[in-house]
């Protein structure tokens, strides 16, 4: 009958009291554990979704702002371009890891065929085709590869010299290469055709065309296809996006500029009215660059935006990949707030209530403690015995509430998110260079109420400490009394 | 001399004044004898016993156990190894059975006790008059007399030579009282223990080997 055994016997012999204590700890523990679960889950979502969105940012015309103008105002507003100097200035900011700027165009070809995936039969050719997205780059290692949109699987990336001089070299997708039997070192030909519209027949005709011969220096594979996309309705959309990427041809910016210039000049020749209208205007610029900045971390987005905004011409805005998070994460925010309040309330209630319950629990044990002391038991062991009783019950209660709290958390989150999601589903998402196929659904999917070991440790720590303190303080007060005061 | 009190002083502070319960009280006890301490209610009998059993400490004076100051032995250690205490209201642990109550001090003491504690406890209870079927019952389901017997068995469980009891028969009828007193006599005379019983019953005092009377803080022999 040593103090350890007495402690355990105390639990089983006084089932009623042990159950009350267990119930109190369990209920309050569930609240705390539920609130902590939700907190952890929401902060994990923010982190992992932002990570998935990446740290890219670009500068775009803010169409929403522009659309607000009256027609008259629109006439008077002259939209400026984002110049190369500005892009370079922004690119030098400390938040930027690396950056690129790009011009692109679409070209067709007579000699190679575009990659169509499984949908070969669906394509019936009507008129001219412009199947290939020619994407100019300035950053020689190719930003898309660094950012894991694509991956170089054969050959090499550009050299800075090739980029600067506009050498006729290209990186194409492996699928496109396979379809057309191209290898690294081979050349292929694209056609830059200028069309005229015959008003009588209603048909487009090629006015003039020139060939663009490019040497394949590297092959890439797409990295963004979701593996779990099955037969559901969205997959068509994703296939289309992927197909565009498979038919992308990376070349130095200079190549695209030169092709655009050709097209413009030839077009002027075919359309006299337009040519007259343009007469006297400054020489047209072909450098409509789309910049792309990759920041050191998604967390830098806000600071980056703040610093860049004043540098931009009117009607331009900074678009960060993480902006998307804010537009779809509404439900998450409200949940995080709610759980914070519940947590604070639950912790206070727990400390007070367990303190009181333990105190009552001990009060009618006072005589018993005196008896042990009168039999010569040391104070430490008397305290130890009661601690065993309380702590074993607490441990069970906390362990149970760990799971129940988690369960409650996932139930509550489910309901809350569903309710919230219904209200905020009509977001209009403007097309953006950075658009990633990420929806509120995806955010919800990332949301996962789970038991991580850190959380478990913290929860046990807080729980046991609370109960330890509320037990030891009154206990020490009792055993310091001399036994006569308690017993006689 | 197994137990000796020397010049014990014990008082309560009553405003500015000290109200002495024990004033320079000295007394000594031998092994193999059954002692009683008489006195009116409020005379300080319980106070004296609590000092002799180290449940409280005197303001001055000392208690010697086998010529050693119990303060030096250590109060806890003294209670654990050298004495058995019996209270008027039994003070058993209500959630435990009779035999479990007897086992408790056996797990606390440092004295040599037989290995098979459980059968020792049953035998002890049987000797005091608690049969096995009652020994396995929670103590709050025993009668007062039975509970006091369990308390006596508990006091004897650690094999001590000194038994101190504060009005052990105060809650019992006369018949039960006599049975308990007979046990005390047996413990003193057959087992050589020193038994000190506080009581206000003359009957009991007459049966003891020596009786003391506590009056106005002073202890005197009672004839
Ligand atoms: N906490 C206290 N404060 C002041 N006086 C006290 C306190 N506790 C006890 N006393 C007084 O001490 C005196 C001795 O008390 P004690 O319990 O030793 O008497 P007793 O002889 O055992 O009486 P009884 O026969 O009724 O048990 C009493 O007069 C009592 O009123
Ligand atoms: Mg008394």
Task: Please provide a written account of the structure.
- The complex is a heterodimer of chains A (488) and B (223).
- Chain A is an alpha+beta fold.
- Chain A has helices at 3-13, 15-53, 63-67, 71-76, 84-91, 143-146, 160-165, 174-179, 235-246, 253-270, 272-278, 301-308, 323-328, 330-363, 366-374, 379-423, 440-446, 453-479, 483-487; strands at residues 56-61, 96-102, 104-107, 132-137, 150-155, 169-173, 187-198, 203-222, 248-252, 290-295, 316-320.
- Chain A folds into 2 domains: 3-51 and 329-487, no CATH class; 104-286, no CATH class.
- In chain A, the strands form 3 sheets. Chain A has a 4-stranded antiparallel beta sheet, covered by helices on one side.
- In chain A, a hairpin with a 4-residue loop joins strand 7 and strand 8 (203-222).
- Chain A is elongated.
- The two termini of chain A are 25 Å apart.
- The relative contact order of chain A is 0.19.
- Chain B is α/β, with parallel strands linked by helices.
- Chain B has a domain at 90-160.
- Helices cover 36% and strands 29% of the residues of chain B.
- Chain B is built from 9 helices and 10 strands.
- Chain B has helices at residues 45-52, 70-73, 75-81, 98-108, 117-128, 132-135, 144-156, 174-189, 202-207; strands spanning 3-14, 17-29, 34-39, 60-65, 68-69, 83-86, 162-166, 194-198, 210-215, 218-222.
- The A-B interface holds A 1-3, 5-6, 9-10, 13-14, 367-368, 370-378, 482-485, 487-488 and B 46, 50, 53, 55-57, 76-81, 85, 87, 91-96, 100, 103-109, 154, 166.
- The complex binds adenosine-5'-triphosphate and magnesium ion.
- Adenosine-5'-triphosphate (ATP) binds at residues 12, 21, 39, 41-47, 200 of chain B.
